[in-house]
Amino acid sequence: MKGTEAFKDAIERYVTGMADSDAAFAEKAVNPAKNIDDCVAFILNEVQKSGINGFTDEEIYSIAVHYYVEDNVSVGTMPQCQVIVNHQVQLTDEEIEELRKKAREKVFSEEASRIRSVGKSVQQKSTSAEETGQLFSFD
User: Fold this and answer.
1) Cβ–Cβ under 8 Å, residues 63 and 46
2) What letter does residue 83 receive in the DSSP assignment?
3) Contacts of 131 (CB under 8 A, 6+ apart)
4) Could you give the C-alpha distances from 118 to 87, 93, 105, 111, 123, in angstroms and in order?
5) pTM
6) 57-69 and 5-21 are packed helices; what angle lies between their axes, rounded to 10 degrees?
7) Model confidence pLDDT, tens digit, residues 92-106
8) Each residue of 27-42: pLDDT tens digit?
9) How far is residue 36 CA from its own chain's centroid?
10) What's the pLDDT score for residue 118?
């Protein structure tokens, strides 16, 4: 299973940014023998070898830089794993408004159901009182 697209995009953005700011790294990054898919496979294999489950961004980025800087790295096969990327999702104004609308509808629906169930329980209590009769009648 390949790494998530968000993970791949994050690595690619970092490598591109690093290449823009560092001319020596830029020469290594354009090597035709290197590509982002192999870089992701290399990172995941290195993480798997370490036996550690959580890494900082800087640790992962340093593994990516190592992949591009070293000429003969053993990439290995893409491991079967799940990659979790901690990043903020930027929603558009339309998406935010749609989520608010759905949340409002859900709250209204839940409240309507609650009110209906309360009404039914009140009706059931009043009919059960009528069926049992009154204990004390002062007529």
Assistant:
1) yes
2) -
3) none
4) 43, 37, 20, 10, 9
5) 0.59
6) 60
7) 899 899 999 999 999
8) 888 888 889 989 999 9
9) 21
10) 78
